[in-house]
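User: For my dataset I need records formatted as: sequence, then structure tokens, nothing else. Please produce one.
Assistant:
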Amino acid sequence: MGMSIKFEIKIYVSKGVAMDSGTENAVSSGMFLKSAAKEMSSLKNSLSYSTLENYKTALRALKQYLKHDISIDRIDKLTLKGFERWLRAKNLCINTTSCYMRSIRALLNRLSVKNKDHVFDGIYTGRAKTEKRAIAEADIIRIKRLKLRPGLFQTLVRDIFLFCYYAMGMPFVDVAFLRRSQICGNQLVYYRHKTGQRVVVPLEPCMLEIIERYRSDSDYVFPLLKSLNPQMAYQEYLKKLNSYNRSLKSIAKKAGLTIRLTSYTARHTWASVAYGSNVELPVISKALGHSNPRTTLTYIKDINDNRLAQASHLILSRVQNEIC
């Protein structure tokens, strides 16, 4: 009597769902833009809104470049290299194009059973060193002393820039979304949009003065956003961010600064001043809402730190008669 043995081959993906080998081919041959849009829809409650926006922006750019959808298995090095060159031709900075490419890679890895990382060989997905973003403490004082007329948007920008600095380098996005309900007694509490890290900021008189200056019936502390709908509010934020950075350029000129002011400057400056004031790195990391102190090091690594020379001199002075 004969016996037949039936084998069933299953492939397990990261979500723990069993797929047969035919499904792998179906996924790989699926249309990327359509599949990616569907994937993002399913992830909207598990990813930060800013991450989803990065994905959407990258997909829009890829669609403009390709002019039509493309199957996942046809996305190769040639396609991605062409997309990268197309982005650069639009005068996008290297870190912006890198962000686009990282977003495409993340979506490919979520969609494809096959590892697509190899097609990114030769594609820049790093973070290039940018221009110095911190200014001196004396420059903060010059900005504070500027005589600006109340009621102007530029005055609001100057006040928010100072508030970001006063609030231990609070990011502009978190200031824009700051609600009055987040102010509790003598402190404000916020969760960073970028990382979700909880940060507690002690309220100083200089901060309370700015908050009081813009008191209104709005749920928001500052008159930057109107909508309470997360998606609509985020679009408002993006527009205000552009206006904020443009106005900061004008403020820098009025203050006689040679360095370009951006939405990051107040944050980097606070970190630099704190470090120069002998505040320990773990404390600075906690204030900035960094989960990893290595991130904080990127803020302060370019500081001209005379303490290194002083430490070296102190150590060697003890034995210089012996070895020098």
